[in-house]
Amino acid sequence: VDEAEILSARPQVVLSALPHGESAPRVRGWLDAGAVVIDLGADFRLRDAAQYPRWYGDKHPDAELLTRAVTGFTELHAAAIGKADLIACPGCYSTAAVLALAPAAAAGLVDGRTVVVDAKSGISGAGRALSLSTHFSEVNESVSAYAVDGHRHHPEMDQELAALTPGEPPSVAFVPHLIPMTRGILATCYFEFDGDAADLMDLYREFYAGEPFIVLQDRPPATKEASGSNLCYISTAVQGDTAVITSALDNLLKGAAGQAVECLNLRFGLERTAGLQPPARWP
Amino acid sequence: VDEAEILSARPQVVLSALPHGESAPRVRGWLDAGAVVIDLGADFRLRDAAQYPRWYGDKHPDAELLTRAVTGFTELHAAAIGKADLIACPGCYSTAAVLALAPAAAAGLVDGRTVVVDAKSGISGAGRALSLSTHFSEVNESVSAYAVDGHRHHPEMDQELAALTPGEPPSVAFVPHLIPMTRGILATCYFEFDGDAADLMDLYREFYAGEPFIVLQDRPPATKEASGSNLCYISTAVQGDTAVITSALDNLLKGAAGQAVECLNLRFGLERTAGLQPPARWP
Amino acid sequence: VDEAEILSARPQVVLSALPHGESAPRVRGWLDAGAVVIDLGADFRLRDAAQYPRWYGDKHPDAELLTRAVTGFTELHAAAIGKADLIACPGCYSTAAVLALAPAAAAGLVDGRTVVVDAKSGISGAGRALSLSTHFSEVNESVSAYAVDGHRHHPEMDQELAALTPGEPPSVAFVPHLIPMTRGILATCYFEFDGDAADLMDLYREFYAGEPFIVLQDRPPATKEASGSNLCYISTAVQGDTAVITSALDNLLKGAAGQAVECLNLRFGLERTAGLQPPARWP
Amino acid sequence: VDEAEILSARPQVVLSALPHGESAPRVRGWLDAGAVVIDLGADFRLRDAAQYPRWYGDKHPDAELLTRAVTGFTELHAAAIGKADLIACPGCYSTAAVLALAPAAAAGLVDGRTVVVDAKSGISGAGRALSLSTHFSEVNESVSAYAVDGHRHHPEMDQELAALTPGEPPSVAFVPHLIPMTRGILATCYFEFDGDAADLMDLYREFYAGEPFIVLQDRPPATKEASGSNLCYISTAVQGDTAVITSALDNLLKGAAGQAVECLNLRFGLERTAGLQPPARWP
After folding, report:
1. pLDDT at site C17
2. Rounded to whole angstroms, how far apart are CA atoms D32 and D15?
3. Beta carbons of B283 and D182 less than 8 Å apart
4. For labelling alongside A128, which of A111, B66, B107, C137 has CA 20 to 30 A away?
């Protein structure tokens, strides 16, 4: 990355897909040069600088900027994204979990409760780096949990759900799993609920009314339905005294680049769905 | 199935792999002829006859026998299995969930609590019947939840955990998922827990001391580790105020035929592991 | 299919995806009503009516129409397709094999020779019908040949290569294989060749100059490169005295619906690539 | 590898699974110490030292030993293996191809002819090393050819088939392919043949009579049938004037460690199948 070359181009926008830790020291320069910055990495996802040493190992180099950043949850922060100079796109797991839980959180249904987020991700979620955990013969024909002691996307979920919750924030238990497929994330979310299933779906329908990338349905979605699109499918159900919300999305689109394009569209007044309507694809 | 032919052979044991509903009307005949019956189907898994109409559609044809049956959880009921005349092998999901939770239940850790069992199964769990949900192109590169409103293995878990629990039985929320792999079940189980991770593992080690088919480990297991064997791998962890127990097994062995062979071994005084020690296989 | 309803709509074009055998008795009615017919099935792929009983079991009901049909190989018959009233889209295997071999055939390189076509197809090539050969657990983690005694796409290859060949037609040995993936066909083609590898590639480049859906490259293509697009990737190589040509395409696009859209575009004077430019997708 | 430690143990046998190039300089020491050496690597597979620079980059360090080595094709060289001091286990592709073609070669059916070997291998054939070609997201849902210009197992096939052929050796065209599965090799072999299909199968049955690890069948085998076993399934068929022989084996057993155990059994007078009879496994 040649900073001088970037700046000399007087960019209106810098869309950074640098690895974690590499955007943070550069963003102020881009902003000073007048660019809007949309960051796909983790460097500006957390508002509380104290979280960075714990989850990313290092002190954040520009904590003041954290307070200026807007997290790119397009369904939750459209107005703020529309005028933000620094937009931090959330992680793929956080996107799946927060979209699954936001309506319930906003309605006060998870105040002070434990919410279980059991997430299943295709191997592309681990990126293109080489490791045994992405080696075909190791992960094919197998499923396993990982990061049971804590995953970096956990504080993103905490932060967003706490902001949505009217009362005491929920306590999230989050366990990600590796699935032998390339693309897709499914988040199955559980919380205590003593209401009616139909009311729960109504609440979700109202919350997401008009949202172009949210598909609500009774049947639990398969990740294949979302594959190749920017859509997030969400189903609600009640089993005994537990609500079960599942969300499915393509981690490489709604969970990453697709959501970044949405942020770009929102920020520059373009049609929200511009560039994000691929042809259907099945199977 | 020619009943006369079976009975004329004066069998010591009938190992029935008939579809659900087809063993029930035959078992009394087999027992009367002096055979021990080991049933791999669901017909004698539930002690309460009232559960059958709800989960299997029909009234049970021989409710008295339900009270004589012993469920084939070899780690929990070895003595009873050793002298039972009718052994009902549990379902694959129940096996994974109950083995993951039994030590905690027996220690009173889940009394009256909600326990989430998020289970992931390979496609062979659906059997060899033809349906779109086992069609390669439909399920490959995809993961989805199903039976969110209730699955037939649910009352088996309830029954077993209630029996193990010293106080009020736990409330189980159980959601199974289809994974694009052939073999294997992973159950990720969650319950509120305010104790120490090391103590939790100690409790599990003590509970399963000497068990030949239980492998306890800190690292969450991959189903591939158990594939082709009768082993059940179990890990324990604590995340915040939630215990996370994962269990992995091969649904076609420990979750079905392998456990039936264990029951056979126990019942007839054979070595517990006889016929159940295949060579290791990786990957 | 309600014929009266179709005809009352006075269609300009009928794009038929009926199963084999169901278009043949209907096409004359559609043509008489003034429609152009584009058939995705096999009913009009073979010019010689005598072939139908052998490969499809029944006598063709309207042999005269066979002589009016144009096979929808867009790279080979663009002009004829442009004015045809009945277009028969070729099979997926035929498309992969014929595109791989056409330049060599036209140059006289396979006259009277044996050409081996070893084809590998994803499971979606078998359609959505339920059978053990599309059951996940049966075909996952496995590869096998089938139809070694003859496959219905074989006479299509013979017909097209014979038409391209200046001298004695080649003899094609064709064996299809099932691959544990959803989409894609790879055809690896072999024929005796004593020339230069660079000349062979030059011949292919010249033959396919300007073709929007042919990608020529030295490196053998992976089917994943073509997945989701209407492209056919072709590589040429020489190993000893054997030419090795590989072609990769998406059986559901270039091998089926995509090629039909190309035919539609050609026939109605639309841009050749209209509707066929999806966004890139990797992995 | 501590040579001194190995030798001080006065081993009867050294079974070396060292990477290519690392056994060659050590074997003479092991032989001098009185051990029988069974090498799973490539260092002693080729009898002609001149081949090593071309295929492995370096001059062979101990060419004299090459003439003493016996290639571990157990079906072809049982007697020689039984008294050899240095046994070189063949490569996985060579095993599949040579077993498929040996009966035809020995019967003079491929003298001077071109034989096409189109081989399909699971990803474990590439070993556990990390590379993009073993990265799940890159190879899943994809099939591709590689090494079209020549693969190291090619000269092994040439060597063995030339030795079997009564007349002019055949010319082999060999192209390996990567299949999105963990285990298994399928070799589909083609050669001109103007005889009868039943006679061809008879010839194979006679050639392999009594062989414990060869399964001959009319139906082309799936690699899944061989998975986890030391068996090699072979089918024969005739399509027009071309013979089509397919062979399926588990590259990690018959194609590697299993065949090495066979050699060990043969060399030390053990039952040929000792340690090589795992339980059946399906699917």
Report:
1. 94
2. 15
3. yes
4. C137
In DSSP notation, D78-107 reads HHHHHH-SEEEPPPHHHHHHHHHHHHHHHT
Percent of chain B with pLDDT over 90: 90
Token output for A7: 């700046």
From A77, A71, A155, A62, select the one nearest A117 (Cα to Cα): A155
Q: Which residue of C has its CA nearest to B141?
A: C182
Mean pLDDT to the nearest integer, B88-107: 98
List chain D residues with CB under 8 Å of B279: 278
- Packing angle between helix B197-207 and helix B92-106, nearest 10 degrees? 110
Q: Which of D92, D189, D232, D263 is catalytic?
A: D92
Q: Distance from A42 to chain D by nearest Cα, in Å?
A: 22
CA angle A121, B152, B49 (to 5 degrees): 165
In whole angstroms, what is the distance from residue A5 CA to residue A101 CA? 42
Mutate one of C239, C250, C252 to test the D interface: name it (highest D CB count within 10 A). C239
Average pLDDT, integer, range D48-61: 94
Complex-level ipTM: 0.96
Chains that touch D (3 or more CB pairs under 8 A): A, B, C
CA atoms within 13 A on the CB side of B128: 8
